[in-house]
Amino acid sequence: MSTIQQKTLRLVQLALLAAIIVVLQQIVIPLPGGLTLSLVLVPIVVGAVLYGPSAGAVLGGVFGVVVTVLVMTARAGDLSTMMWVANPLVTALICVTKGVAAGWAAGLVAKAFKKHAFVGIILAAAVAPIVNTGIFLLGMLTVFRNVMMTFAENIGMGGTGVIYFAVVVLVGINFIVEFAANLILSPTIAAIVKAIRKTAQ
Predict the structure, then answer these.
(1) What CATH number matches the domain at 3-199, 3.30.70.260, 3.30.160.270, 1.10.10.60, 1.10.1760.20?
(2) What average pLDDT does range 174-180 have in this prediction?
(3) Is-contact 39 181, C-beta < 8 A?
(4) Structure pTM?
(5) Which of 13, 92, 175, 198 has a C-alpha 20 to 30 A away from that of 34?
(6) From residue 188, how far is each of 25, 33, 75, 127, 132 by CA, in Å?
């Protein structure tokens, strides 16, 4: 396959992954106990493993923009709406930055373990939700600390400690579920990557 064909195929594949991200961000799988599961990080990891940190960052950016639009239109939950009202610029910055950083970090990890591809995929699938959630938590514990505690009061948890509420209540179990799902799906990600690489040969 010529260089031009490879570049064209890469653009098509990245566009397809971006479209999948947009669709998946609209689909939230309900779990017992009011929990939800989103698989939107999976295509980001696929792109990051296939084409490196820059592609992961671009796909993460798509994810961040979609999240920002959902927040702007009050379709991302009450806390996100409160954040937008309090500081729309920083809210958008957090939404986009956490997506870009998650994709970029996944790509870096996969690149570092290029000689051990499957290990690299597992670690990339693990690091993406850690970075994504970590940046969100950082924003909640700094810029949006007061917003978060007002939200806690609104849901009857006003006496809860800031760290406990942020880490355990806001992201705790959902993060664990999504982190585990990414790891469980690592073989699937590996199979997708292998299949796409074959088409590029």
Answers:
(1) 1.10.1760.20
(2) 82
(3) yes
(4) 0.88
(5) 92
(6) 19, 27, 30, 17, 21
